[in-house]
Amino acid sequence: MWSVLAGSAFPWGTQLTLLAVSPLILLLLISLAIPRRLRGIPYNRGITTWFLGDIPSMVSHIRRKPEMYTWLSAQNVKLGSPIVQVSVRPFTAPWVIVTDFREAQDVLTRRTKTFDRATFIEKVFGTLIPNGMITMKSDDPRLHTNKILVRGFMAPTTLNEAIAPQMYKRTLQVMELWKVKAKLARGHPFEMIHDMANAAFDAIAGAVFNLGDAESIISAQIRLLSTLGSVPVPEDDDAAAVHFPKAPMPPIADAIITLTDSIVVAFRSPLSRWHHWLLSQTPRMRKAYTIKENMITHYLESAAKRLLESPGNITCLLDDLLQNELVAAAKEKRAPDYKSRAVYDELYEMVIGGYETTSATVLWGLKHLSNNQDAQTRLRTELQRALLPQVGNRFPTVEEIIGLRVPYLDAVMEEIFRMALIASAHVRTATEDTTLLGHFIPKGTDVFLALNGPGFTSPPFPIREELRSRTSQEAKGEVRDWDFSTFGEFRPERWLVRDKLGNEVVDLSAAPQMLFSLGPRSCFGRRLGVLSIKITLVCVVWAFDLERVPDELNSFEGAEVLSRMPIQGYLKLRERSFPSALT
After folding, report:
1. How many CA atoms lie within 13 Å of 423's alpha carbon, on the beta-carbon side?
2. Does residue 489 sit within a domain?
3. What is the pTM of this model?
């Protein structure tokens, strides 16, 4: 140190000042980094947590099991409390973790002015889509403009007439791909994770932009495998999986998926915003961003031209968005701005918010149906009972699938949503000083409402009624006392009851399920996601028998990317005798 200073160009007085001030700056940084605890809320104690907080524990858990949210709810169990605090971000206040259905419902639906869109979410998505609604708090002046842009996106007419045909078309392509794979696999299982993710991307991107077959990942894969007469098949091991070559990814799909996958860095990193920003400066990310921007520009210009030639002709969500902007511009007496950053980010947000959540849900659903043959058989029987009189000896059309009213199908979907836990927590930020379960919560605190712990997957913690908010106490009768003894099992029938006329109907209060969140900031694309999942499940169960996969390929461990995905996802298919639209 002294040798360095001796050769310095700084005067001795400056050098002595630096020597005196440097330790003070270091001490200041250390004091700022030391976790600040919230009074009275349980937390992990120990010598390491005094300075580093819970970062070492969380990082160690994620290295073993890539799921942050399972670690969060595990702290409630470890500390024996429905509310705990963890310190996992340097220089910031601790997160508060709550695992209780009633409290989550209350925060999301009745205390919406006190708890708003989370700062955590803005940090995770802010680098990639800073002008998307997902990053905006309810008092953000930009939110109103964005809501106008996407108005009508989830309307039944738009979904059923413009969006559903796109999804159906892509789903049939997956059926064709799996038909080819099942034939080549000769009774062996094969991996479905990439197929389902790629199919969901094709479907959602097609719904948003009306992408052609040249940009379809599944189309490229079908073209590749259709030229193969055979693939290597393990002859001496019936349980071994068959692996298939992969077609080159179309540039647009590769770029969007590269950008979307990068969000996991912001999600897991203690320095989320800065870590993701540094990643975004790499050549691969910059190239992907340029391709994504050029793609959106190209489709915007095509849609704007289409709008002028055929006003009111909606072929995809992009058409709907530009129609909304045209109407808003006329009302505000200004020129339409088809290339605002809000337009770009809302379009991209629809893609990244839709394809991974949809694919993750279907993956878990197919795993559960493969493992639960009775449920699969009953679902197929109910679909046949509803469709065969009109469908007969062919594959059901998209209109026929949309029009299905099969309570057991709805029950299967609800059970998949409950079991999949693709979103294992909803996050809100306190907009003012408040209380939660009797504890003081300062303004700006991020509160994680865990869906994978006590109160959801196991019996709730006992909580004295006076500790709950007034609104929670007033709504006490709205929440049932559930029997948690079977909640670890896949039982779609738990959702079915008889109405006064003796008809079978779905009871949405049969189990604690809030996958799509609740309240005014719940999942905007819920109807789109449910429609896509419904079309996929009907087509798969109609076209194939899903046989149980060998145990060594049948783990139900998950990994969190944007959604919680299964680590293992294999299919063992037998094509059914129903003629399909593909033959």
Report:
1. 21
2. no
3. 0.90
